[in-house]
Amino acid sequence: MISVQNVRKVYPTNPDFPVLRGVSLGIDAGEFVSIVGTSGSGKSTLLNVIGGLDNHYEGTVTVDSLELKSLSDQDLSHFRNRKIGFVFQAFNLLNHLNCSENVRLPSYFMSNLSEKELNKRTTDCLDAVGLQKKAHQKPLTLSGGERQRVAIARALFNEPKILLCDEPTGSLDSKTGDKILDLFESLNRQSGITLIIVTHDVRVSERAGRLIRIEDGRIASDTNPLQALVEEGG
Ligand SMILES: Nc1ncnc2c1ncn2[C@@H]1O[C@H](COP(=O)(O)OP(=O)(O)OP(=O)(O)O)[C@@H](O)[C@H]1O
Ligand SMILES: [Mg+2]
Fold first, then answer.
1. CB-based contacts of 8: which residues, under 8 Å, 6+ apart?
2. Are 187 and 193 in contact (CB under 8 A)?
3. Which pLDDT tens digit goes with each residue over 193-232?
4. pLDDT for the residue numbered 169
5. Contact by Cβ (8 Å): 206, 8
6. Residue whose CA is closest, atom 29 of ligand 1?
7. Which of 175, 79, 173, 177 is nearest to 165 (CA)?
8. What pLDDT shows up at residue 16?
């Protein structure tokens, strides 16, 4: 479903420092992948490239048979809207909008749903994260975990095939983080959504079926955590 081939990335402000140095990987539909690595190793950059937020790199990225660099700006934003849900560490909610309005934000950019369908979908997404009762509250009146759940509900709004999350539990206490992880796990198992989570949180990587470690813009290891544990033990 996702194929990254020999991707190299240099930010124009720092031309002598390649941030991604020949990254290649394939991810199948329905996988739950966690990406770890030290700060500055290129994890967020890789996520942005896979999600079509960054189109300035060498190499090729193909997602669901679409070669991202060959897409026009319009097709690329269509791709993001249709196929990808993003969850960022800082939630990126709009504080002057209530939960429902935040969740249905994607529909303002592109939607062919009727008002009735939009309302239903908004309610369904808030239900999925257990926040139906808070639909009319604004983000600043919510806890960190609740805000993160609104951000996840919004990411699910367009029924993406792929969910890309950057440190989704980074600012949450461990109990709230665990609940968010349960939610991700059930999305992956029940809806078959492909899950890629960048994280420093070992609890996330423990649950993932695959652990990719990035070092200095390269893939340093790519393992099945359970298998690695068995091998280390033996
Ligand atoms: N917009 C940008 N312009 C210039 N350099 C950037 C930009 N974004 C990131 N970088 C640099 O690219 C490198 C990789 O950044 P990236 O955000 O991908 O790291 P990361 O692995 O996600 O780190 P962290 O764990 O701290 O989030 C860093 O050295 C960073 O300073
Ligand atoms: Mg990052």
1. 18, 20, 21, 22, 23, 57, 58, 59
2. yes
3. 999 999 988 888 888 999 999 999 999 999 987 776 666 6
4. 84
5. no
6. 40
7. 177
8. 92
Ligand 1 pocket list (CB less than 6 A): 11, 13-14, 19, 37, 39-45
Structure confidence at residue 197 (pLDDT): 95
Helix (H, G, I), strand (E, B) or coil at 154: helix
Q: Identify which ligand lies nearest to the alpha carbon of 43.
A: 1
pLDDT at 228: 64
pLDDT at 224: 85
- For residue 89, report the distance from its CA to the centre of ligand 1, in Å: 14
Whole-number pLDDT of residue 202:
83
What is the reported pTM?
A: 0.90
How far apart are the C-alpha atoms of 163 and 172, rounded to whole Å? 19
Residue 174 Cα distances to 12, 107, 144, 168, 178, angstroms: 38, 32, 12, 12, 6
The conformation of residue 39, written as its DSSP 8-state character, comes to T
Confirm if 59 and 45 have CB atoms less than 8 A apart: no
CATH number attached to the domain at 2-233: 3.40.50.300
Positions of the chain with pLDDT lower than 50, given as ranges: 234
Specify the pLDDT at position 171: 74
Q: Is 21 exposed, middle or buried (0-12, 13-18, 19+ CB in 10 A)?
A: middle
Q: How far apart are CA 128 and CA 43, in angstroms?
A: 28
Classify 208 as helix, strand or coil: coil
Residues in the chain: 234
Residue ranges per structural domain of the chain: 2-233
